[in-house]
Specification:
The structure holds two protein chains of two kinds.
Chain A lengths: L2 E3 L4 E5 L4 E3 L2 E3 L5 E8 L6 E7 L7 E2 L2 E6 L4 E6 L8 E9 L11 E2 L3 E6 L1
Parallel strand pairs in A: 2-12
Antiparallel strand pairs in A: 1-4, 3-9, 5-6, 5-10, 7-8, 8-9, 10-11, 10-12
Chain B lengths: L4 E3 L2 E4 L5 E6 L6 E7 L6 E7 L2 E4 L8 E4 L6 E5 L8 E8 L11 E2 L3 E5 L1
Parallel strand pairs in B: 2-11
Antiparallel strand pairs in B: 1-3, 3-8, 4-5, 4-9, 5-6, 7-8, 9-10, 9-11
The chains are: A mainly beta, B mainly beta.
C-alpha cells in the first residue's frame, strides 16, 4: 500500500513571495506518478502539476515547479510570485503506473496543506 | 467541453435516512471514480468503474453503501441507512483509460457535501 504524508497543515505567506509545500511518500513501486492538486473553497479539485517517476527532470508549469527526489521519496511544490488566487488547500497525490490491460487505480492523497496568501 | 457533473451539491438528512448521489462523467471517459473526503482530510477512493464494471470496491462499506453505473456512463452512489460518520464530501472523477498503460488525468466534479444530523 502507498502512503502520502504532508506535514504542514497550514502555511501563510505574503503576496509575491515564494512558498514551498512539502510531501513525502512511501511505495515499493518503481513506476508511478505524483501530483499536486489545488482545492479552493468551491471544492473543485484542480490539477496543478504532475511528475512521472521515470523522468529525472523536475516538472514546471508557469509559477509552479516541483523538487522530485526519488531516492528520498520526496516531492515538494514551489510556488513563485504567489498570488491571492493561490489561496486554497493543496494536496499531494500518488498513483502507480497502469498495468498492461488498461485501467488506473484511484489516487492516494495526503491530508493537505492549507495555503493562505496574505495581501 | 462540459466537466464532470454531480448533483446535488448539498444534502442534509437525518441519520438512518437513505441518500443518493449522482455523477455524469466527461463524455467518452470510460473510468469513473467515487471518492469520500472527510473534513480536514484528503479524498479516499470508495469505488472505481471501468465502463460498467466495478473493478475496485475494496474500500466501499458494503453493508450500507452501494453504487451502480448502468450503461457505463452515469453513476449513482447510495447510502442506506446513513450514519453520523457519513458526513463528508463525496467526489466523482472520470478519466479515459487505455491499454497502453499511459496515465490519463482524472477530472473531478465539484462534489456533494453530505451532512447527517
Amino acid at each position: 500500500a502507498q502512503t502520502v504524508t504532508q506535514s504542514q497543515p497550514e502555511m501563510s505567506v505574503q503576496e509575491a513571495e515564494t512558498v514551498t509545500l512539502s510531501c513525502t511518500y512511501d511505495t515499493s513501486e518503481n513506476n508511478y506518478y505524483l501530483f499536486w492538486y489545488k482545492q479552493p473553497p468551491s471544492r473543485q479539485m484542480i490539477l496543478v502539476i504532475r511528475q512521472e517517476a521515470y523522468k529525472q527532470q523536475n516538472a514546471t508549469e508557469n509559477r509552479f515547479s516541483v523538487n522530485f527526489q526519488k531516492a528520498a521519496k520526496s516531492f515538494s511544490l514551489k510556488i513563485s510570485d504567489s498570488q491571492l488566487g493561490d489561496t486554497a488547500m493543496y494536496f499531494c497525490a500518488f498513483i502507480r503506473g497502469s498495468r498492461s490491460g488498461g485501467g488506473a487505480d484511484g489516487l492516494t492523497f495526503g491530508k493537505g496543506t492549507h495555503l493562505i496568501i496574505q495581501p | 467541453e462540459a466537466g464532470v457533473v454531480q448533483s446535488p451539491r448539498y444534502k442534509i438528512i437525518e441519520k438512518k435516512q437513505p441518500v443518493a448521489f449522482w455523477c455524469n462523467p466527461i463524455s467518452g471517459h470510460n473510468t469513473l471514480y467515487w471518492y469520500r473526503q472527510n473534513l480536514g482530510q484528503g479524498p479516499e477512493l470508495l469505488i472505481r468503474y471501468e465502463n460498467e464494471e466495478a473493478v475496485d470496491d475494496s474500500q466501499l462499506p458494503k453493508d450500507r453503501f452501494s453504487a451502480e453505473r448502468l450503461k457505463g456512463v452515469d453513476s449513482t452512489l447510495k447510502i442506506q441507512p446513513a450514519e453520523l460518520g457519513d458526513s463528508a464530501v463525496y467526489l466523482c472523477a472520470s478519466s479515459l483509460s487505455s491499454p497502453s498503460g499511459f496515465y490519463n488525468e482524472q477530472f473531478f466534479g465539484p462534489g456533494t457535501r453530505l451532512t447527517v444530523l
